[in-house]
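Two records follow; treat each independently.
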Amino acid sequence: MKHKLIETGIQLFDQNGFKSTSVQDIVQLLGVTKGTFYYYFNSKEELLKDIHLIYIEELVQQQEKIIKNRQTSFTKKLYEIVTLLIRNIRTERQSARIFTREMRHLSGHYLEEIKDKRNQFRKNMQRLIEAGMQQGEFKSGLPSDILTMGILGITNWSYYWYNPDGEVSEEKIVDIFVQMILNGISINDSVYN
């Protein structure tokens, strides 16, 4: 039942937003009582926290599996992580939207728990970029923290505009992003020529 409550919460939070969805809306859609909801969750905010936690923990697990593969270059790892994030638009679109859009409704220890996991994903990416720089696969001398935020910015916000059923495949989007990240879009070395 807890899983069904989470799935229903995802559906309704995505459709209507966290604030506009009540516990009554969730239980009514499932055909259960509020008592059932409160058996599993202390509050609607706790349900939102669990939705966030499930989403980010799965991403971190998959990211760490990619990073730990010693047979893969840093460039390939970067490509695989970008693929992971873009594929998530198709496989976890509702949760991805909730994760980005509804985090502002978390407070206290719920918010800290999610921020810790989110920071873990970011730090893993930054360490990957730094290791790639040290090994000479990526250009050194650029601030790894800014590069990390830029990469995560273009990938994480793609769910707002990217349609997985549209004309451009997720593989093509990943190729474009990785080429842009690795090579930029200018034919000149200097941005201001």
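The next record belongs to a different protein.
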Amino acid sequence: MISTLGLGSCLGITAYDAITRTGGLLHAMLPDSNKHHSPNPHPPMYLDLGVPALLAAMRAAGAEPRRLEFKIFGGAQILDSSEYFSIGRQNIEMMKQLVLRHNLRVSGWDVAGQVNRSIELYLDTGRVLLRLPARQHEWV
């Protein structure tokens, strides 16, 4: 099992190949590395760099890209609703673009709202346990 805790405006993206039972998880904070002027951006921090890095890591681990099933979580609006702090919405929009660009097969979305999420990807089945405050845990 691999997990990530406290997805607020961040996105948690799981990838799973059921044949090889290979799974991966990306916890990305920001949508676009081009908007932040870091000379050496850390790819997993950004969706635009992190999703291709996740695909490459899955391929290197023996997964077949066309078999990958993705699930996407997070993108909440935790702070105020001003445009400056709409990171959750911006992350969701960027992820939609990346899904189309990379032709990703997404079987589950649990995004937006105003709650933090935690997820656990079980590598034996590819199922994801979604944990939300004051709600029953659910399998996605």
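Discussion point: The chain has one domain: 2-139. How would you locate this feature using only the token line?
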